[in-house]
Amino acid sequence: MSPLPPQVLSPLDGRYRAAVTELGEYLSEAGLNRARVQVEVEWLITLTDHKLFGSAPLDAEQKAALRRIVTSFGQAEIDELAVLEATTRHDVKAVEYLVRRRLASLGLEQISELTHFAATSEDINNLAYALTVREAVRDVWLPKLRAVIGALRGRAEEYRADAMLARTHGQPATPTTMGKEIAVFVYRLERIAGQVEANDYLGKFSGATGTFAAHVAAEPSVDWPAISREFVEGLGLTWNPLTTQIESHDWQAELYAKVSHANRVLHNLATDIWSYISIGYFRQIPQAGATGSSTMPHKINPIRFENAEANLELSSAILDSLSATLVTSRLQRDLTDSTTQRNIGVGFGHSLLALDNIVRGLGEIDIDRVLLAADLDANWEILGEAIQTVIRAEVTAGRSTIEDPYALLKELTRGKRIGQADLAAFVSALEIGDAARQRLLALTPAGYVGLADPLIDHLR
């Protein structure tokens, strides 16, 4: 058997590439290297703005030319960095050399020694990761989560009056509406989205052990922490003044825990929708040309929600691992985070793929109101809760002397199927006030939904 030509190993880079390609703009090796170049360039500009070591501030065109190294970063730079790293065997050093080359081409050799000045690799990396993760979350992942929330909000409004039999422990229970059940997920996901949006992105720039030792050795009179803070905050990040060689990654652990939490709520959504499809509350809309089963032509499988389940589980497994491991670094530095952080994109990729499947899946289902109504009409015994509760209220009000209303209804309904006529006869014989009796006689399973409809207004 002849060997295959080189193939991608991850399905995110193969089968599912189209659904996650936007993440590659930020959470790929190239995206990381572009951010590294950005950090190196902005540090040069900061140092020269402060006229350190006899340098002069760059003029507007020189700054713009330096920043174009970042904005024009493309395949040529990717290839050049690959060649440089093959020699340096060090990714950040390769970035430094690329920036030095660009300084020479721009006629700025006089400041080339300020490239990567007093910086350890982690000074560059922690800021680059913060920039790329922040932009990936804000520009790609959160908008897709918002799309899911928007689709769910639309369904909640559409189905707000569609009564359905609820199931607690899988058994027939007090009715609800499909709209209210979907609104529960909207509310949950909105809270988490807000928490993700508010997450801090911390950065440090303080040298090999977080002490500014090399900085002070080069120029003791400068307020290096103030310059560091100005630099980090100028990148739109939150300055961390107290670190070892590495920024402590706590912000990452917090962020990935929140995204993993969103994954689990979405997983709950996917399994609920799957279950509603299974019992017929949702019909799947046939898609032209699609095949559900290789042998059973009638089938339409809920593949979108099953795919989402699997990818949410994979995403959370990766993000949970990152949250657990990134907060530990032996003494002042070890390199375990270097390997783990390269998988940030994988964790977000599986989540993004799941979000894409959920949006698509929600667009491929429709409610079966006939089945919902039939299911409710076949389960009149669920009104036992209402009847025993009304009796208790009547006893408290002095309009009834019935003892143990719960036991009375338990005897009538538990494990039994009873119909409208049975309940009407039972209610008619009860010792309760006439107003209560009339309310109960008018009650139907479809009408026993309480405030399910107006509760949806809490989403507004």
Characterization of the model:
Residues 329-449 form the Adenylosuccinate lyase PurB C-terminal domain. InterPro entries: Fumarase/histidase_N (IPR024083), Fumarate_lyase_CS (IPR020557), Fumarate_lyase_fam (IPR000362), Fumarate_lyase_N (IPR022761), L-Aspartase-like (IPR008948), PurB_bact (IPR047136), PurB_C (IPR013539). Strand 1 and strand 2 (171-177) form a beta hairpin. The model has no long low-confidence stretch (mean pLDDT 95). 60% of the residues lie in helices and 5% in strands. With 460 residues, it is mainly alpha-helical. It is built from 20 helices and 6 strands. The protein is elongated. It has 3 domains: 11-121, Fumarase C, Chain B, domain 1 (Orthogonal Bundle), CATH 1.10.275; 139-200 and 246-288 and 295-368, Fumarase C, Chain A, domain 2 (Up-down Bundle); 379-459, Fumarase/aspartase (C-terminal domain) (Ribonucleotide Reductase Protein R1, domain 1). Helix 7 packs antiparallel against helix 8 and helix 16 packs antiparallel against helix 17. It has helices at 17-20, 24-27, 29-49, 60-71, 75-88, 91-105, 121-158, 178-197, 213-218, 224-234, 250-278, 303-325, 336-341, 344-362, 369-377, 384-396, 405-413, 420-428, 434-442, 452-455; strands at 163-168, 171-177, 202-203, 238-239, 282-284, 365-367. The strands form 3 sheets. The chain has a two-stranded antiparallel ribbon with strand order 1-2. A two-stranded parallel sheet has the order 3-4.
